[in-house]
């Protein structure tokens, strides 16, 4: 169980939970408000897809040679020999199957747009590091995260509750996705040397470490601009409450500028905390 928990990467699960919280908080101000069975089904499906993505990433990075004994990040169960790549992939298919079952329930609520979102999310979970054109290996990781853990996750959750899609939901999706992208960029920055060796062409590999640090600063700070714009659009000033997380975002930026190698693991933990704090403050602010 400990090995499977490690493979699921619980510290990354904020990327699955926070978008559902944000989308539901926004929908609470739209008729008919939050539908609780929809909330729990969406949350469970999002977590299952995130865990499946992590498992596939664990197995495929090992098979492609991106994860080796010189890895600076947290232990990967396949590379460490704790669980075989085949078993890890089998568990990922189980997670995706369970997510699909939940998707059928949500399909009755949201119709064909939810079918499109569900199929795209399941395909992307594999295509992130698997398939003939793995996104993470071609510098598309940030785009993937902002799209699926931002626009689609927040917008899809909002749509399931309210059966509409607004500019506010898309703006909140961008803010949430940008914070998730911070995690990816820090991870790629830490692993840049190994990724070069294994021909994993992340943006950090393509454009260098300085570019990656600028990326972190942009993705960590732009959500606070977006949240100010969102509060102004909706004249809902409680939504400015996430601005209280700005000092934590500045801490992430400063620490990333100063950290090298394994030191970036601590930055990764702070960035995960930033996403949690931002999401929780957003929910509280939406209730004010």
Mean pLDDT level: 90
Q: In percent, how much strand structure appears in the residues? A: under 5%
Low-pLDDT residue intervals, each spanning 5 or more residues? none
Question: What would the CATH topology be?
Answer: Farnesyl Diphosphate Synthase
Structural class, please?
Answer: mainly alpha
Distance between the termini: 41 Å
CATH architecture classification: Orthogonal Bundle
Supply the CATH class. Answer: Mainly Alpha
Note the total helix count: 12
Provide the gyration radius in Å: 18 Å
How much helix, percentage-wise, in residues? over 70%
Query: How many strand elements?
Result: 0
The tally of domains stands at 1
For the largest beta-sheet, the strand count, sense and barrel status come to: none
Shape from CA axes?
Answer: globular
SSE succession: HHHHHHHHHHHH
Description of the structure:
The chain is an all-alpha fold. It has a single domain (2-287), classed as Farnesyl Diphosphate Synthase. Helices cover 73% and strands 0% of the residues. The chain contains 12 helices and no strands. The chain has helices at 2-8, 14-27, 36-63, 85-110, 112-127, 141-162, 167-190, 192-197, 203-207, 209-234, 246-258, 264-287. Helix 4 (85-110) runs antiparallel to helix 5. The mean pLDDT is 90.
Structure summary:
It contains twelve helices and no strands.
What topology does this entry show?
Elements: H1 2-8, H2 14-27, H3 36-63, H4 85-110, H5 112-127, H6 141-162, H7 167-190, H8 192-197, H9 203-207, H10 209-234, H11 246-258, H12 264-287
Helix pairs in contact: 2-3, 2-6, 2-7, 2-12, 3-4, 3-5, 3-6, 4-5, 5-6, 6-7, 7-10, 7-12, 10-11, 11-12
């Amino acid at each position: 169980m400990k090995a499977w928990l490690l493979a699921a990467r619980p510290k990354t699960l904020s990327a699955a939970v926070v978008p559902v919280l944000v989308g539901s908080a926004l929908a609470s101000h739209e008729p008919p408000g939050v539908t609780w069975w929809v909330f729990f089904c969406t949350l469970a499906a999002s977590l299952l897809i995130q865990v499946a993505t992590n498992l596939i990433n664990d197995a495929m990075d090992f098979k492609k040679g991106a994860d080796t004994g010189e890895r600076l990040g947290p232990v990967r169960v396949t590379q460490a020999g704790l669980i075989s790549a085949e078993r890890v992939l089998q568990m990922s298919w189980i997670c995706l199957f369970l997510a699909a079952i939940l998707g059928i329930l949500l399909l009755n609520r949201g119709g064909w747009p939810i079918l499109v979102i569900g199929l795209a999310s399941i395909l992307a979970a594999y295509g992130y590091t698997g398939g003939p054109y793995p996104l993470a290996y071609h510098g598309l990781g940030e785009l993937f995260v902002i799209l699926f853990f931002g626009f689609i996750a927040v917008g899809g959750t909002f749509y399931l509750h309210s059966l509409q899609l607004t500019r506010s939901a898309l703006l909140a999706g961008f803010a949430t996705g940008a914070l998730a992208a911070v995690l990816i960029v820090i991870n790629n920055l830490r692993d840049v040397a190994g990724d070069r060796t294994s021909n994993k062409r992340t943006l950090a590999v393509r454009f260098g470490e300085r570019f990656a640090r600028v990326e972190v600063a942009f993705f960590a700070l732009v959500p606070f601009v977006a949240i100010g714009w969102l509060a102004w659009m909706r004249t809902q000033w409680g939504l400015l409450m996430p601005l209280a997380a700005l000092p934590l975002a500045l801490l992430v930026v400063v620490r990333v500028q100063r950290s090298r190698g394994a030191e970036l693991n601590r930055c990764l933990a702070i960035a995960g905390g930033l996403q949690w704090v931002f999401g929780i403050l957003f929910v509280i602010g939406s209730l004010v």
